[in-house]
Fold each of these.
Amino acid sequence: MDVAAVDYWASCRTSFLHRASTTAKLVAAALLLAGILLSRDPFVLLALYLALAAAIVATRLPARRILALAAYPALFALLFAVVRWDGSLLTPSVIILKALASALTVVTVIVTTPSPRLFAAARRVLPGAVAEALFLTYRSLFILLELMDHLLTALRLRGGLRRRRYLRNGRNVSLALGLLLVRGTSLAERLYDVRRLRGHPPLPGAQPMTSEGRRWGPSDPLPIALAAALLAAATAIRWIPAAGAFNGYLLLLTLLALILSALNTARQPSPRPVRERTAPTVQAAVQ
Amino acid sequence: MPDGVLPLWLILLGWAVTLGLLALSARSLGRPERQRRLPLIGVIAALMLVGMTLELAPIGYHLNLTVLGGILLGPAAGFIAAFVVDLMLGLLGHGGITVVGLNTLVIATEVVLGYYLFRLLRHGLGRRLALGPVAACTTFGTLLISTLFMIGIVGVSSIDPLNQAPEAAVVEAGTLSFQNPLGRGALAWELFGPAGHEGTDGDHAGTLDLGAFATIVLALGLVGWIIEAAITTTIISAARRLRPDLLA
């Protein structure tokens, strides 16, 4: 769960999805999620997944890393699939594909939308305190991740993290987390003091993003139209018996879209690589 | 819990209960208290997320630190932190987004129960018990109860992803086929034949084996509870040495 990379992809890269407004992407995601939850056809679910993968590839973001990020819920879905085993591949495939496609839908939104804009949208439905807590969590997360990175580095340099010394490594990481907790609470106190001195102004994520300004722009109709079309196809295949025979065509269409997207991306020059910051891991610190 | 495995009514119920409790929690904090606690809520929620990014074992196990969050924040602020954490996990693809309401209730159980159990064991038994064993027992017991709660939710749901929509008919496997209408037989490819598929009279195609689910979850969870209890105890002991006021 590389939060720093997700934030970088959302904030520092550009694509047709990045240019679309937050509202348009949320509407498109809602339509896709409806199609995913409604569908019981594994071919349709796979088609929706491939359509999302094609969109990710078209944004020229690291598609493999993003697909891997969105594959995590499949582990838990696999557990549910195992306990629902009835001798057929149908139910397990539907369970796992629903989890994968839903996760990829949400991940597509978050890797193309800066988090403060998402939190500003969430403020419309959440209590104000919760929206402010969201923003403060987001802000604190990167500070704590950097602190944790430094702590793990210090542990490694002092021999506190070694291969196959699991108990000792666990204890040392726990102590590091304890120190992180203490420093985190000091950070919280400083944040409170600063905000009190400034008269508790509204947080940037706690009010509508006026910098985004426009409600709808030229990049907005495309994601909504594509999502609506996929929802319509999923609904038709679900409810109209005659349309059920076309599930294979939908799958072929989205596979073709993925291939064309990959070819188009391969033809264009790759963006200039910028060093991404990655989240600290104990394994990386031990090695 | 991932998306697509629980029925719609349960998902909506989870959201309704969670949003209601969120509003109650935010109101119960009060404005001066809220301004003071919000930065701490943000930091503790961020700490939980940092814990979840740390893979401690090759099997991909990660910490929760939810019980720790409950001990430090209390029930109302802890509930807000639990929702924030779960929403961010859902947005990052680390859990279901439609089931954020239900997942929040499970995590909030750990937070709220952790707070009360810690206070009970530490101060409520007539004498002040040692911090280490109290933290360990609190963490272990809380995680056990929250896991049972999650199993209960799954049991109530009667998982059947083939019946997400509220109608009676069940799609039979034999009707799901990859067919080319223009060249019937040329590309005919049936992956899901009727063999092994039961319930052609419209009943569910098999049922959830709740016993197997519970066995797997509890067995895997037991290892996690022990690890989490040990780590939480160490964190609390370290924090008390540096900042005794945190646990006052």
Amino acid sequence: MLITRKAEFSASHVCRNPRLSESENRALFGAAANPHGHGHNYVLEVTVEGAPDPVTGMVLDLKALKETLNREVVEIYDHRFLNREVPPFDRVIPTPENIAIDIWNRLQPHLGGPRGKLHGVRIYETPDLYVDYFGDMA
Amino acid sequence: MSGLIEVTRKYRFSASHRLHAPQLGEAENRELYGKCNNPFGHGHNYEIAVTVRGPVEVHSGRAVDPEMLDELVRRQVLEPFEHRNLN
């Protein structure tokens, strides 16, 4: 069974590769390369998998999941300039692809048990653009 | 290597259509498709989600160039479908 919990945070970022020139960055990232940054209201959907416990009827404690999302992601990302304040984005470009991978890496150690194993991370950068990551499976 | 990423972008278009199987009679079409068989057609606002899967390139941090994807979908889907009678 899959269970998905949503969370939201707002953050600013810049998409630039410091090894490329200004015109190369503009060509690659468009308006997202503006060095002063810009922001998004991100929506995060975290999906866990497992079987319901026969006693509680729950796959996992959803309140605990909410607390984990808040502690490991929202408190770290919310109202931050990702490139300057949230490693690894001082050296990794904070595209939605890399944000999904980073959130997976932050949550995976806390959602590895037989009940409530992390299944997937979906991050919406806008209502019309989202990225899914299911871990390092080939 | 951090595995594969799926990137999804949503697009919208509006079009009209009529569901009608020419091999079937009028009554059979009416029975099968109901209101969708109205001979004058009808329209919808369609929403499509296009998903691309791939590894993340280190130099761009991306699995797909979104402008290239937009251009491809615009040329191959939105321009042919937008405000058309599909039949």
